[in-house]
Design brief:
Blueprint (H helix, E strand, L loop, with lengths): L3 H24 L4 H7 L6 H6 L7 H11 L3 H5 L3
């Protein structure tokens, strides 16, 4: 089982990931609804992803990265 320090570090990376999702979307001037529609998902899809209520699978990450003009690695690298 990971130690508390390891879990804190992972939570920090995850929080950074979520912040990058929001910033990349906003930089493109897109709303959550627009992105969800383009991806063929429900309108609440991206809101739940950006708030951490829902996980993003690999294929969704690849779609978002392409839509935002970023590499998948951009979202996964810690600050």
């Amino acid at each position: 089982m990971p130690s508390t320090g390891q879990l804190d570090k992972l939570q920090g990376v995850y929080d950074s990931f979520l912040q990058k999702l929001v910033k990349a979307r906003e930089a493109k001037g897109l709303t959550q609804r627009e992105v969800s529609t383009r991806m063929g998902m429900s309108h609440s899809f991206l809101n739940k992803c950006e708030t951490g209520e829902r996980s993003i699978d690999v294929m969704e990450l690849l779609q978002l990265a392409e839509l935002y003009g970023k590499s998948p690695e951009y979202f996964l690298k810690g600050d």
